[in-house]
Amino acid sequence: MNKLLATVRLRLTLALFLCIPCGAYSDVNHQVQQLMEELRSEAARPFTAQAGLELWQRESDGRSCASCHTADPDVEGRHEKTGKLIEPMSPSVNPDRLTEIKKINKWLLRNCKWTFGRECTAQEKGDVLLWLTQQ
Ligand code: HEC
Q1: Atom of ligand 1 nearest to the CA of 124
Q2: Which one of 3, 24, 71, 134 counts the least CB within 10 Å of its CB?
Q3: CA–CA separation, 109 and 103 (whole Å)
Q4: Which sign does the torsion angle of CA 65, 62, 109, 43 carry?
Q5: CB neighbour class for 101 (10 Å; exposed up to 12, middle 13-18, buried from 19)
Q6: How far is the C-alpha of 28 from the C-alpha of 49, rounded, in Å?
Q7: If you measure from the C-alpha of residue 34 to the centroid of ligand 1, how many angstroms do you get, rounded to a whole number?
Q8: pLDDT band at 125 (very low <50, low <70, confident <90, very high)
């Protein structure tokens, strides 16, 4: 009986210990995961990071996401029009990124219109968010 209790206690301790990093990770990503689930129900095929990267690099009349964010999401960007600095987009470099659905939606709407002259589809948003969350 004591042995059983000791085993249970050990397992609980281990679970707690191991889940501190994963808990912090899921906190940061909870909002973007929820948004991606919503988008998934409107998208034709599963999201891929490769398609997200291609969207990031896609040029339309000389404009792309990289125009302001640079091709490398780990570094600071600069707004092409106003010259204002933009913090790095990679959540691994900048943990404040992709933590608020409202903010993500607002900027995706604005930035897709600026870059491509139209809103991005659910497929495009999901692909680029998947890629960004892995940076
Ligand atoms: C004209 C400049 C510009 C272009 C082009 C641009 N962005 Fe942005 N983006 C911004 C600014 C400014 C912000 C908000 C400031 C900030 O969060 O630092 C932002 C914020 C975002 C955010 C919100 C990040 C968060 O923390 O929630 C996402 C997502 C994003 N951009 C994706 C894109 C994608 C995808 C493209 C290409 C379709 C793109 N952006 C093109 C300027 C731009």
Answers
A1: 35
A2: 3
A3: 10
A4: negative
A5: middle
A6: 19
A7: 19
A8: very high
| Residue 23, pLDDT score | 46
Amino acid identity, position 130? L
**Closest atom of ligand 1 relative to the 97 alpha carbon:** 26
CA of 69 to the centre of ligand 1 (A): 7
| Residue 128 φ then ψ, to 5° | -70, -35
Q: Pocket residues for ligand 1 (CB within 6 Å)?
A: 65, 67-69, 79-80, 86-87, 97-98, 103-104, 107-108, 111-112, 114-115, 128
Q: Are 42 and 33 in contact (CB under 8 A)?
A: no
Tens digits of residue pLDDT in 29-62? 789 999 999 999 999 999 999 999 999 999 999 9
How far apart are the C-alpha atoms of 6 and 12, rounded to whole Å?
10
